[in-house]
UniProtKB/TrEMBL annotation:
Oxidoreductase among keywords: yes
A Pfam family per the record: RmlD_sub_bind
GO molecular function, one term: dTDP-4-dehydrorhamnose reductase activity
Domain spans labelled RmlD-like substrate binding: 2-280
Enzyme class, broadest EC rank: oxidoreductase
Protein name: dTDP-4-dehydrorhamnose reductase
Cofactor: Mg(2+)
TM helices/strands, residue ranges: none
Amino acid sequence: MILVFGKTGQVASELALLAPEARFLGRDTADLSDPAACAAQILALKPDAVINAAAYTAVDKAEEEEALATVINADAPAAMARACAERKVPFLHLSTDYVFDGSGDQPWRPDDPVAPINAYGRSKLAGEQAVAASGANYAILRTSWVFSAHGGNFVKTMLRLAATRDQLSVVADQIGSPTPARAIAAALLSIAAQMQAGTRSRGIYHFSGQPAVNWADFARAIFAKANLTTRVVDIATSAYPTPATRPLNSQLHCNDLTNDFSIQPPDWQSGLEKVIEDLTR
Ligand SMILES: NC(=O)C1=CN([C@@H]2O[C@H](COP(=O)(O)OP(=O)(O)OC[C@H]3O[C@@H](n4cnc5c(N)ncnc54)[C@H](OP(=O)(O)O)[C@@H]3O)[C@@H](O)[C@H]2O)C=CC1
Ligand SMILES: Cc1cn([C@H]2C[C@H](O)[C@@H](COP(=O)(O)OP(=O)(O)O[C@H]3O[C@@H](C)C(=O)[C@@H](O)[C@H]3O)O2)c(=O)[nH]c1=O
Ligand SMILES: [Mg+2]
């Protein structure tokens, strides 16, 4: 049995569609602000593998709640990973492009230097480091710009704003890769199966949609696929002030996952088409 932390989030919802036989723990049964309770669930339920799909993902709010974000994004996965080490079962975890500072213009490789520039990124990096130190057989997928028909994300924000506006200003100097939550769920299940069958994970992997794009062009693609005439005006990050600073270059180099687990990075445009179909049906 695969145990999943998270039930309502984007990736958890897609895992539930692809693997309804897995066991899903929502906030009611496993609150990540209580790391020991999460570990206790693993010891009690004795799963064959654990996937952590729950996290504190409110990037701007994390600036004023960094302590809570750190408990949820670092202490809880650390406790889960230690329980997995004790049970000798694989632990799969998700992290983010926001562990990088966004410098340069090349895709980041898994062992490139990390240097988060916001509280959410720091909390996720602390989680990576704690999981790596846990002694568990673990795989961490760093992904980026996740979208789906469920939960909150940029695609749904754009469609909501387009309902009342015929023009939107969107930052055009942050480059990254939109990633369909469904593809992340499928990748996690494939990695879990391969690790259960004995494939060793080398730790941190990158997994994001191709090709890279900036947020303004992503917004244009969303409106085009949704048959909306909403205009997108390119703006600089400096013209869209937010509490948390975002990295300018978020591209992820995804080859290791293909080499080790035969998993290809997804094409975000076909994923976007499916999500818009789901949302407009
Ligand atoms: N969203 C993105 O763009 C990206 C996400 N990631 C990472 O991918 C993973 C999955 O993200 P995604 O599916 O988008 O996340 P969502 O924001 O869609 O969902 C987060 C989930 O975590 C749950 N959660 C939050 N706080 C707690 C808590 N204290 N106890 C229990 N559950 C809690 C939420 O439950 P509830 O509904 O009850 O609040 C929700 O199910 C995370 O690790 C995230 O850091 C990485 C890169 C990009
Ligand atoms: C709504 C809006 C946003 N923006 C900008 C702000 C920001 O730079 C960018 C995207 O906005 P969001 O709030 O969706 O971005 P954000 O919440 O920072 O998204 C991040 O979430 C976390 C969880 C991750 O791990 C990252 O990979 C990334 O997906 O678009 C505009 O320029 N115009 C707008 O009208
Ligand atoms: Mg957000």
